[in-house]
């Protein structure tokens, strides 16, 4: 039996780390979990025992000495940029949980380091890799669905006050933003992967119910290249939780309704009159595999095999992160924001709250 080609490490053993470890286990013929690290060594050891990782440490420095090929970065958001930079400078590829950085400026620093070292950084946007999303992009690119006309994207989740008792949550300095940055980002990243480049957005954001520094609700109206219009809603104050996407094309409406991960059965297609064949074409070859980290890891390993940048590349990630920055910029300045408008000198490039959230100014008084 041949040894797996790649050696991986999981850094940070909070809740999301189990999804990464399971993805590695699902691809055990290609990659093996070699090391685990966490500042809480006992927690790291417990995690390593559960997932059969031979090496345990309390720091990334020690992990990088184990000749790993890929670091799965599962630490709190404010640590992503410095730890990813450390991996890149060591020549090690890194797969980083969302949000990948706290700002566009931090992301650009990682991009520069990647160019200099040849190591790659990829962001975990696993919903791009589910079978339904892949099918939708393929059929849309082939023109099977006609022109995209309208889309809606809703991430309406519920997080109570106890959720925000974790010290880094709900703070610009440590989480980078509210549901726009940390929750809805998966859904509108999938939206962007289907509809392509966005051109302009107008947004609002508010702190309605949670005692946090960031927003707990945001909304945006978006225009895409080609004229497609979309609305985006992000919330952590919605008791009936849902994650919904709807794409109205000329020939069919394609909808996804799920919560934290989807199967093919969570998608529906409603053909326009005269295009009834689309429903059967959509359901051909369906699977019940849930979208998740294993699907993205397979694509990452395929890219590494080919010597290509693994998905989601830093260039694709930047489009999504620029969307986040633009939403906050529009919400806090009251003006529409066009793609490319947030340059390196913009306050919204350095921090997602840019010129400052208006409710924090009220609180300060």
Give the tags.
single chain, 365 residues, alpha/beta, Rossmann fold, Dihydrodipicolinate Reductase, domain 2, eight-stranded mixed β-sheet, six-stranded parallel β-sheet
Task: Tell me what you see in this structure.
The protein has 365 residues and is an alpha/beta fold. Helices cover 36% and strands 24% of the residues. The protein has 14 helices and 14 strands. The chain has helices spanning 17-26, 41-51, 60-64, 80-89, 104-117, 131-141, 172-175, 179-182, 185-195, 277-283, 293-306, 314-333, 347-350, 358-364, and strands spanning 6-11, 31-37, 55-57, 70-73, 93-96, 121-123, 148-158, 198-206, 217-224, 229-235, 237-249, 252-258, 267-271, 337-338. Strands 13-12-11-7-10-9-8-14 form an 8-stranded mixed β-sheet. The protein has a 6-stranded parallel β-sheet with strand order 3-2-1-4-5-6, with helices on both faces. Strand 12 (252-258) and strand 13 (267-271) form a beta hairpin. Helix 5 (104-117) runs antiparallel to helix 12 (314-333) and helix 9 (185-195) packs across helix 12 (314-333).
Topology:
Elements (H helix, E strand, L loop, with lengths): L5 E6 L5 H10 L4 E7 L3 H11 L3 E3 L2 H5 L5 E4 L6 H10 L3 E4 L7 H14 L3 E3 L7 H11 L6 E11 L13 H4 L3 H4 L2 H11 L2 E9 L10 E8 L4 E7 L1 E13 L2 E7 L8 E5 L5 H7 L9 H14 L7 H20 L3 E2 L8 H4 L7 H7 L1
């Amino acid at each position: 039996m041949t040894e797996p080609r790649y050696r991986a490490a999981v850094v940070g053993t909070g809740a999301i780390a189990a999804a990464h470890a399971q993805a590695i286990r699902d691809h055990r013929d290609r990659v093996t979990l070699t090391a685990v690290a966490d500042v809480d060594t006992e927690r790291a050891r417990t995690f390593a025992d559960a997932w059969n990782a031979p090496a345990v440490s309390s720091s990334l420095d020690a992990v990088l000495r184990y000749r790993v090929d890929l670091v799965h970065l599962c630490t709190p958001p404010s640590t992503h940029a410095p730890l990813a930079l450390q991996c890149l400078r060591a020549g090690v590829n890194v797969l980083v949980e969302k949000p990948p950085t706290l700002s566009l400026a931090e992301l650009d620093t990682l991009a520069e380091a990647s160019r200099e070292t040849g190591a790659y950084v990829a962001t975990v946007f696993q919903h791009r890799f589910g079978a339904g999303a892949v099918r939708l992009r393929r059929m849309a690119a082939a023109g099977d669905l006609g022109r995209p006309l309208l889309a809606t994207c809703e991430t309406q989740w519920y997080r109570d006050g106890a959720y925000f008792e974790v010290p880094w949550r709900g703070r610009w300095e440590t989480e980078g933003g509210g549901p726009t940055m940390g929750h809805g980002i998966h859904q509108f990243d999938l939206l962007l992967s289907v509809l392509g480049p966005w051109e302009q957005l107008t947004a609002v954001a508010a702190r309605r119910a949670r005692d946090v520094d960031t927003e707990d609700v945001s909304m945006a109206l978006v225009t895409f290249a080609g004229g497609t219009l979309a609305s985006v809603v992000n919330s952590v104050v919605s008791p009936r939780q849902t994650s919904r996407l709807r794409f109205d094309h000329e020939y069919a409406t394609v909808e996804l309704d799920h919560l934290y991960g989807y199967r093919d059965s969570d998608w529906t297609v409603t053909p326009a009159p005269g295009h009834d064949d689309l429903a059967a074409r959509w359901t051909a070859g369906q699977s019940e595999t849930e979208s998740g980290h294993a699907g993205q890891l397979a694509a990452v390993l395929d890219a590494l095999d080919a010597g290509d940048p693994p998905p989601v590349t830093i260039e694709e990630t930047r489009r999504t992160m620029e969307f986040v920055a633009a939403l906050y910029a529009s919400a806090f300045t009251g003006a529409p924001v066009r793609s490319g408008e947030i340059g390196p000198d913009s306050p919204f490039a350095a921090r997602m709250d840019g010129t400052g959230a208006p409710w924090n100014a009220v609180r300060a008084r």
